[in-house]
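The protein record minuted underneath.
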Amino acid sequence: MLIIPHPAAHGGLLAAQIVTAVQKHFSTTLAKQNQPNTYDLNLVFLRPTTAGPTRIKVSETKLGPKFSTVHVELSQSGKARVTGYASNISMALERGLSLPTAFSLHPPLPATRTSDLARDTDPNWVGWTAPWHPDSLIKPFSHIRIYALRNGPVHPSITDLWLTPAKEDEVFTMDMLGYVADHWVRVGENYKPDSIFLGPNIEAREREAGMWDGAEKGGRERGMEGERGGGAEGGMFWVYPTVSLGLEIKKPLREEGEKWLFVRARAKSIRNGRFDARVTILDEGGELVALSHQVSFLINDGVGDGDGDSAGGSKAKI
């Protein structure tokens, strides 16, 4: 278990929170626009947000018959934490030219049946759900079961995951796509052979039942030290603070929600502690649902921002 003091809030959860506020604004104050669907979201993460109350302000920027754009700001303790813009349309009324693009994933994925994933019988994928602990950095992973390639990534710069809610009665909905877009193992982990997130290590951990259960079994200290020392280069833990996140939703999810989504994140450059990621989200049938572009830092041992806030408790600044 990755235990750290006052972990920063997961960027995807903040994105989902902001989308929920935007959709509320369009269903109440801007109901006459009849534009209930957020299709474009662009956020900048100014400083860490911690567990606790936040305030989201939605300001109208441009209102139009086809789409409307609002400015959003999430603040906490009197400081702006996240800022950006969101645009809404009515996907049910959307009309326009559609053309084939022959888009496909490259490298391709092995053929997969989600029914096999659900039974943990797929030969190519291994499933894992992080145990929940209130102080865990990977606490958001306890809400979703992830399936990683059993033999490791097709290339270290690529992360491929199947996702499904950890609770059987839950599904993915439109307002959760910002969360999904940020819910992937950072590609930096693929370059560490002993990373706790790699498929071969997940499989070994599942065989050694209890390796991840230190917190639940009274081993809080063991849970912390075991993962800090065992999952990172030089005995140090890596964090990946998101600087910006853009999300474009290509098609709506089914009204009843989706039980399974696939996520591929690919970095084109990892240089001087900064990297990009192009995130592709597909539904169970392989149709493109959304695209995301993100800019992040890769920091050893939890370096904080200019306010002295830190995911790892450090007072170093970036």
Observations:
- The chain is about 15% helix and 30% strand.
- Residues 11-27 form the longest helix (17 residues).
